[in-house]
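Cast an eye over this sequence plus tokens and walk me through the fold:

***
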Amino acid sequence: MANENIRVVLVEPTHPGNIGATARAMANMGLRRLYLVSPKAFPTEDAYARAAGANWVLDEAVVTESLDQAIADCDFLIATTARSRAVDWPSLSPKEAAAKVVEASNAGQVGLLFGRESRGLKNDEIDRCQFLVHIPSDEEFSSLNLASAVLLMAYEMRMLTRQVVPAEPPVEAEYQPANDRQMQGFYRHLETTLSDIDFIKATSSTKLMRKIIRVFNRSRLSVEEVNILRGILSTIQQRRQ
């Protein structure tokens, strides 16, 4: 596992103590790249107190104003959620998700997204991810502390790296996965084109577009593939004009 390629992204955390506890959990499992998207308060004394000495994680934390800034160069993203969604998304257990993260970290930048303490991640934030991970907690009390969720995922990843596993075949040199910035540009281009040819309507496009995005997210397109698809879309638009 390439730890330096794995980032933990907390989206709009409201409690500084949870940020500190997350830093401690990350340090326990050998992770150090913490990204904070619009935290309510940071840095704070409470965060450092709850970090229990894992100050380097907080010192190196990257604070961004938007999720775009936090994950633009990531080519593999996993979101955590505690509730079901209207559009089914490919879901994994924590152990399955950990295996995906470990594998992907050896090839590029990986982001683990954790949502707000009060309401988790929004649908459009989940749409950025290839997979969802659901931690199976008790149905009568399913809300999991933010730092606990981070610790559980980091633990599963660490346990995998302690096992002896067969070496994966080498990745083809020409394959370069598209990052989030490139994928979002493609999705905007795709939606515009589908609207131009009246395949989707402005009043009812959201759910259909989410399903289309899910198809491409599963595929993990390369930079070359994204460029080819955008070339096709540009040709369609030119012919229609």
